[in-house]
Amino acid sequence: MLPHQPHGPVTPGDPQSAQMAAARATAHHGPQAPGARSGTALCLSGGGFRAALFHLGATRRLNELGILGRLRTISAVSGGAIVANLLADPRLEWPDPLGDPAPVVGFEECVAEPLRRLTGRNVRTPALLSRIRPSGWNRPDASVESLAEQLAVIVPWWSSDLRYNDRRGPVILTSATEIGYGVSWVFADSRSVAPRGRIGDHRLGYAAPPPGLRIADAVAASCAYPPFFPPMELDGRTLALRGGVPDASEDPRVSDGLLERIQLADGGIYDNLGVEPVWSDHAAVLVSDGGAVFRSQPAGSVVGRLLRTLSIAGSGQQTTRLRWLRASFSAGLLQGATWSLESTNTVSRVPGHGPLPGELRGYPAELVDQINQVRTDLDAFRPAEQHILERHGYAVADARVQRHSPELVALAADFTPPHPEVADPVTVRHLLRHSGQLRALGRR
């Protein structure tokens, strides 16, 4: 970690200039690994409850294949952060990373059931309405605080302080976007930096999570998508942040103001795939992308064109990251695989060792297109919608891992997608016919 830097002019060639150059490189490319790459990272994208349910299916299959229990890190944003922090449940029994591969015990009780309960609730509307109540008039981040409170009620153990979550398993990195500098802010638990974990970013600095900062707060900050949710605010003067590198020519009053009122919005604004914290030092990277699918669209109004332009910027940033990852896979720099809502579900294996080459083991392409149009929201999802998204995530994760990273598979496990009641494409098409619609007051 870099030492705290004073403000003021910096001349080329001096040590501070070199440190700032290194910090900028870290911002764009991730920190340089101190040694050889090691371990496997799983990245869980944003995308609201839709993404969370898709990731549930993917992690279920990774657990059956013995991959989940051998992860070094889970990096997540927004909807992905919901699943990642359910996987931080101290009741889960993780296998010894140096022992024989085995599934994580307690997945159904600690991850799947709480997620279905959470995604069956409309947490968006009550959170937004909290701003118009008298108690929220003088609290700019009232709605994100309300969201955190709801999360803590539905998943009670999330009311625990981030710094005190003593457990086994991989490091959990939950990212938000720090608005002042426009960089990724991380909430890392004690598995990352002993003994209490770490929060912060490379511009403002890092510190141990303070007492009272709950797991629910970290998840809510990562899910605070504008303009629906205002940023979560922290007073950085109480955090003892160290190691930050501000702009060389920055007026100290500017950075002091940013520190006084740290604003944290949805982690997907900066990096919706959650890959930046892990892409430089892990040997393998798996990416589960449940975010919105970018589609062609004719020119519209001035406002529509502006919103479209902003969407292009975000989509282009995400596409660039994916292309970098896939180029690294092809060049042998990294192992890994990526899959998304629009992935097809065909797998190709050696005949006699599983399914026939090209056998379809999930939903057909035309139905996958309909699944892509399911709403991205924190509104309630019906059980049928939950089951379809989970089944789809299970199938595409299996297909992509088996095809692109079979060396990561540690256990031979039959392909048994969950929820056979939603296996029939005709039935699924009927069940999803209204699932793309957003409702102002929600479904429940």
UniProtKB/TrEMBL annotation:
Domain of life: Bacteria
Keyword Hydrolase: yes
Pfam family, one: Patatin
Compositional bias ranges of the Low complexity kind: 18-33
Sequence motif DGA/G, residues: 266-268
InterPro entries referenced in this protein's UniProt entry, alphabetically: Acyl_Trfase/lysoPLipase, NTE, PNPLA_dom
PROSITE patterns to which the protein is assigned, alphabetical: PNPLA
SUPFAM superfamilies, per database record: FabD/lysophospholipase-like
Xref: Gene3D superfamilies: Cytosolic phospholipase A2 catalytic domain
Residues covered by the PNPLA domain: 43-279
Keyword Protein biosynthesis included in the entry's annotation: no
Name of the molecule in the record: Patatin-like phospholipase family protein
Taxonomic source organism: Ornithinimicrobium faecis
